[in-house]
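Bench notes, afternoon.
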Amino acid sequence: MAAVLDTVRALFAPKSSLSFRIDRENPGDVVARERLLDIAMGPDRRKKSSEALRRNRVPAEGLALVARDADDHVIGTVRLWNVQAGVTPGGGAVSALLLGPLAVSADHEGKGIGGALMRAAILEAKQRGHGAILLVGDAPYYERFGFSAAKTQTLMMPGPFTRERFLALELKDGWLDGAVGMLVATGAKMMDASLRKAA
């Protein structure tokens, strides 16, 4: 993981802003991450359809990342979550990841941090063998990472969403072919994860 993150930072961060690094999120980051998301996403962030799929779940293994400044403060965050992206015509469940939220501190916008977080998350998801990533977001921003609405036309979010903002990136060609239906959370529940760690 460290090698992937170092490579992403070296390749994609502007040379003038290498005063940040991409790292795995740890339990000590929770307060800073939540404060950053509250400021970046606003007071209604927990009412979004994507939040229904994240609520009381833990992120996918190894796919909760943060950006840290030179003083080790959290200045950016991205997380990916296990979901079922509908079913195939044969009735098989289609596993995927839901990305979000992605946020960068207003004091550090325009330094390539969001892009570095995205590239690190995509690379790590691919290395872990995942087939596709879905998200609800600004198409012009996410298209540069390969996301489009082409593979989500037969999929639905659990609640209101804007169709043209519902995007997908296949990490394995054809992964979402024929997938139809509602996204459903499949990740470990927060309580279950805590119990496993305690055991």
